[in-house]
## 1
Amino acid sequence: MILLVDMDAFFASVEQAHHPQLRGVPVIVCGDPSRRGVVTAASYEARPSGVRAGMPLQEARRLCPEAQYVEGNPEKYVAISLALLNLYLSITPDVEPFSVDEAFLGVGRATTTLEEARAIAADLQRSILERFALTASIGIGPNKLVAKMAAGVEKPHGLTALDEEGFRRVFWPQEIQSMWGVGPQLATRMRSLGITTVGELAHAPDVALKATFGIIGPQLREAAWGRDDTPLTPYHRPVEAKSMGHEVTLPEDCHDPAFLEGTLLRLSDQVARRLRSEGYVGRTVCVKIRDRNFTTLMRQRVLGEFTADHRLVFETARALWRQHWKGEPLRLVGVTVSSLARAHAGGQSELFEPDLRATRLREALDRVRDRLGEASLVPAGSLTHRSRLGHVPFGPVTGPRGSCTPVPGSAHERHRASRRHRNLGLFIRRLGGALLSARHALPGLPRFLRPPLRGRRGQRDLLPHPRRADACAHGEEDARRVPVHGEAQPGDDPRDLA
Amino acid sequence: MNFESLSDRIDVLTAFVDGHVRPLRFRWQGRIVRVRKVTGEWNRREGSVLLRYFSVESHAADTYELCYDPRGPHWILSRVWNAS
């Protein structure tokens, strides 16, 4: 028997669980609420107003002005998702994560009844509520299709168990678009054939379906009967990736070529880094741009070789962008690499790569990031505007960002300027420390980049300085005085706390 | 409700309960905040360093996000939600 655990309004529910003030009020999770962007998640209290994930924030504010807008924390959601995964694995080893807030679980044996599976699911719902203060809707079925669709029958905190017969009873009268895998365009084409409900799809002639939809036609008909033989792929069995990409909604519509190129460079670097860290190479580069009218353009180019080098990805993406961008202000830019292969198979040509120094440098830089974090090294071409892109998917380059915009000439701006200098110093210090640790791997580095060999005292000097506290109060122009580590403050005696 | 992103270094008094760290109270801006409830706990990796985050609720119904950074080691107050 298969369970589909679907966390209810996951991101918004996590924020409500962590911030009791948000419980019972409409909550909208988004990027930086002071900038434009889209709704990442809406709580159940916000949904009656018509707010949905993916909707522009401006529209959400119009529909639900009383909502609390919360800046999302993707790393927190992933961490909680992994903790949930551990909980599932304590029940069964057959767990297939489907998304950050959904997972398929294979429970019991072939002879397990719906009622037995329902008892397991009810226990799981209780555990999730007790441990995480979150609710989940669970669908139970003999296969993944039925479980997935059953999970949507009753929300939030629903528990629906259906066999194939129950599936037909519940879903046959429903609109064709309620079928898993039938989107708006497919539904429109089906309606043009006179198929408006799931039941009508189940009884549609195979020949007509095959002629119109090709090989998926008969598969959809089987699905309409509640039949699905897709195997559950357990967590421990790796799934081959087909593509990897990053995209970012810009802080404001932008037609500055330097800024857009810097963004493409940063995205290319992120994608290439992911490819390398997961052992892939790819040979198709796709660039995606979206203008202020939400017109999206995607163009791709097949390379002559497999690569995981950010320079090649960037150069290809930039060439595509230059070829197809007409100069209009853009709101979104993305880079994707597809046609993936495992690096040991697809990347054999790298054995004969003339630029071994570049490969070694790339490996050394990867080791730096493994040790100090993704933000410890970024391409120099994107440094000038790193603070503007310091949000998802890049992550902050230094500590958490303040949430207010400095007024030119204010003390706050001066503070930020001094912080930028400090950050640059931190960047150089981190780079120096990393090169020091990687000096044996970099015999080919130019002399001026080779770190001097120093004694222990010198080495310590190159280690990252402990991050200093940055303070930035919402809506305030002047930054609070920043206490420096080790500096005595009034009432600083730790015994006060005891 | 008011939300602030911060990075203030703070002193935190903690207890170990059932193998878990539990913040009990902390000093911020010269005053002591008593923790009524730990509402959430998660980790974030920054390179090889594992940062531990706690979402806590005070007796005044404000919520705070505390971060334990083992590099210092030190504690940082990273976010504040004011109920008022």
## 2
Amino acid sequence: MGGLTKLIVVFLSIALVNNLVFMRFLGICPYLGVSKKVDMAFGMGLAVTFVLTLSATLTWIINHLVLIPIHLEYTKYIAFILVIASMVQLVEMYLRKFYPTLYRAFGIFLPLITTNCAILGTCLFIDLWGYNLVKAVVAGFGGGLGFTMAISIMAGIRERLELVDLPKALAGPGITLITAGILTLAFMGFSGMVK
Amino acid sequence: MLRFLKASWLVLASAFVFGLLLAGVHASWQPRIEANEREKLQRGIRSILVDADSIATRPITLATGGIAEQTDLYTGFDAAGQVVGYVYPAEGTGFQDKIKLLVGVDPDLSNYRGIAVIFAAETPGFGDAIRDSAIFKGQFIGAPVDPPLTVIKVGDRSKTDDEEIVSITGATITSEAATTIINRRWQQVREALPPTAQRGDQPQH
Amino acid sequence: MIDKGGAVIRRSADGGGGGGAGVAAAAAMVGAGAPAAAAIPADPGTGRIAVTQFVKQLWEENPTLRTLLGMCPALAVTATCKPALTMGLAVTFVVVCSNVMISLMRRALAPHLRILMFTLTIAVFVTIADLFLRAFLPEMSEVLGPFVPLIIVNCLIISRAESCAAKNGAFISTLDGFGAGFGHALALLMLATVREILGNGTWFDLRVLPSWWVPWTVMKLPAGAFITLGFMLGTITYLHTRRHGRG
């Protein structure tokens, strides 16, 4: 398989087949409360994509150039989360200084993203799957886009659900999860796409 | 400098303490972790080479499309020191996740001796059955290495040749994936295996 | 008696679905000036407060079912009950240890260091828990897979650290930790029981349903997890509303 084909496979694999939200359960927690509107969901998705691509790159570099050579693999989790947290902090400071409009657009999402399971989870999956650096970057980017798509779809459906008669108890997180479940069934159709 | 220390002494102190704690925990438990991994591998190998008395491990290099790949070859010996079979790892993409297998071949490299699944996260109840289904895995015992194995579905027709593998009902893709992995690996490994005349492996005592 | 953090959580829960709690907790942390709410006075007896905290965390404000914290692993590891219990115990271990550590450090925590120290402490204990599983329970470690390290970003633990450990003594924090951990484990077990019985006919690997029962495979899949949890949350919310009038 040519190099480019392999990368496309990696991209599709993480965006669709192993979609972070529906197939890997990552990134649900903050989402459930935050985004009921499509544009907010989309914004958060883009923020996640941005942070995830950078994190995937940085954590890969730290893992392969620092941790493994000095046999400190067991500090991986600590290193990863600290890298992610610091990077989000730096990105936030940088954006606030140089791109204030963008910073305001991201709003509260940026600091929330640190505890987003999707970021740490994807970095760990990349490590588990043994990707090289290029594939890791592609996976970070693709994962983020898949995540964006997933929560935008869900936000869209939730917007519609507001106009509907629901049993009171199910309103909010209840129906959101059921929706997610049905969407997961749909996404299972992508399985086996990558051979 | 002093201001820096004042602001961050807690972080530095905890980092030091935590570092010690982790290093200690890791040092005491790492041997067990490694032992667990080795045991899992050994269990897999022994499930294939059931009549092996001892297993020798030797790294081999495969030429995979021009790229050299290092892997381990496990040779099983019986009590008399005769080779009973070879086992090598194989992996590839399954339906949902990776599939990692151990594949065994008999000493004269003509038939498979069986497979063991090291890792599979397929659809529970369907593809995941390759892990435990003695029926599915049993089909590989005695299956010829040449020509490559093919997969047929239950109900297509009765199995006519030993080289046909009947897929698990409702898990065609997983079954095909596993078979492809086995076929592909055989092509890669066959050149690295010793020809019948020279068996340089010695049993480890 | 519960501190400001709790009040914030409850208010947002009324607003737009309990999930707001996650945001509120995070927002409370992020706003660097989050005022340290008045520490609970020691007068009523530390013991009683501790026990109250424990019980509250277990059911009333069960972190997973009421404030929706700690759900990522909930969905992933609850296909059967054994991994669910293991995960619940692992989380309990981490939250208790981290609560104790943080409560011991609480007077030295400058505001800008809080989150960093929380994260660092939690990460260390999660690493220890992971090493423990890999050394002594390798099959469980394999089943739980990458979700053990994800305990680090489990909103539940950080939320307990922020709301309780940073403001109270070690004893209270310990019991709060146990309450939250067990509450979370309870929620996981509830979810896993439904999924395992319907999806496999077993409970803790013991066959419960007769062999003519065709298992609902969807229960073993992510889809079943989402749907079951959705209905469970609906049921709990309904029970809570009936009991208290309003969420």
